[in-house]
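Example record

One chain of 124 residues, shown exactly as stored in the release files.
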Amino acid sequence: MKVIGLAIVVSAGLLSSALCAQESLLGTYSGRVENGRVRGGHSNIDLVIASDDNGFIKGRIKNYEGRCGGDYPLEGMRDNDKLQLKATKVGRLADCVLTYRLTIHGARLVGTNSDGLPVQFSRR
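Predicted structure tokens for this chain:
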């Protein structure tokens, strides 16, 4: 009987850890896109992950520089430690289709954007 009780406690602990890990993705992140074509070698961006409904992500991204500067709503999918996000609107000239392929590393999100440029976010 003690073995069954221990198995239930361990299982509940693992489930709780998995749920906490998913919830920990929610929040505000500061980021930068490495880009040698802009002054300073990078562009600043902010990401807000507002919801994670069984791996379906919603949020917003704000680009501070460049032709795609502005605020964009995002949607995407989470699969374990992988996160794919896409803006649900395009830029002012309909030429900014923003996508992000990221890997979750604790409080950091690391990957590339739609131009293949390195991007990194850190939770605030």
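Notes: The longest helix spans residues 2-23.
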